[in-house]
Amino acid sequence: MRRCLRLAAAGGGRVRPNPMVGCVVVKNDKVLSEGYHQEYGHNHAERNALLRDGDYRGATLYVNLEPCSHYGHTPPCADLIVERGIARVVCCNDDPNPLVAGNGFRKLEAAGIEVVRHVLEAEGRELNRRFFTFMERRRPYVILKWAESADGFMAPTAGEMLDEKGERYWLSTQRQNRLNHRWRTEEAAILVGSETYLQDHPSLTPRHFLGPAPQPVVLDRRSRLADVPSHWLHLHTQTAEETLQVLYEHKLQSVIVEGGRRVLDAFIASGLYDEVRVLRSPRSLGAGLPAPAIPPVAPHRLLVV
């Protein structure tokens, strides 16, 4: 099952809004085949494993999510498992998607296949925490992210946005900037407020890391913006709850909330966040806009770099 989870992780950023899934087929203590869900709309993990040549009769199939039982972009994986003569299926997590939700297991058991569930369940939920949050809480998985100086400021004092060389003041180091852009490839959306949009004119693309770009979103609560590009999601919602509801309706499973300060404060006050990531600069500012205090969050959900 740990091998399944490692395989599944290879699909990160490319299979959303589907979950990451890996599959390993074992017979007589030997691995016959393995596969993972590589790209949205393409074969699921079980199909990638079982469509390879081999005698799978009597084998055990390990997979980290309940096999699908419905027709989507591909036929049901449960049907293929039955056809290939698999004798036993060991699974990590039940699928909360109403289109599956136990139907995959029932189809396998009706065919006489032994089903073992909940193996490394916590590890599987951690891997697909965005998917489970979206399905169970009916909102995106929320990551609060900001950069701050060594002395706790998000930005210089108003009117002092240029450094001593007359260039725009950057807090993040090159390494932090590249890490930030990698994070962007891993999430479905990235959100800023209208003040950040007006001050920074951000593109919110992963320019320094190869991968899919998130959906850019601007929260314009005071309707100040008139030139937002058509590919952006331009929201006029007033609360964090309303904002997440719109993102949910757009089927965006996760969002990085980059700020500014008012937007971050609104999400912190609402309690609607799952992770906090802080890029702490080695530079000090001496004065400026204070960064938020790190809100209550589980230790494994806090990252300061």
Q: What's the short story on this structure?
A:
The protein is α/β, with parallel strands linked by helices and 305 residues long. 28% of the residues lie in helices and 23% in strands. The chain has helices at residues 2-9, 45-50, 77-83, 103-110, 121-127, 129-137, 174-186, 194-200, 240-249, 261-270; strands spanning 22-27, 30-36, 60-65, 88-93, 114-116, 141-148, 153-155, 189-193, 215-219, 233-235, 254-259, 275-280, 289-290, 302-304.
Q: Explain this structure to me?
A:
The protein has 305 residues and is of the alpha/beta class. The chain contains ten helices and 14 strands. It has helices at residues 2-9, 45-50, 77-83, 103-110, 121-127, 129-137, 174-186, 194-200, 240-249, 261-270, and strands spanning 22-27, 30-36, 60-65, 88-93, 114-116, 141-148, 153-155, 189-193, 215-219, 233-235, 254-259, 275-280, 289-290, 302-304. Strands 10-9-8-11-6-12-14 form a seven-stranded parallel β-sheet, sandwiched between helices. Strands 2-1-3-4-5 form a five-stranded mixed β-sheet. Strands 7-13 form a two-stranded antiparallel ribbon. A hairpin with a 2-residue loop joins strand 1 and strand 2. It is elongated, with a radius of gyration of 22 Å. The two termini are 31 Å apart. The mean pLDDT is 93.
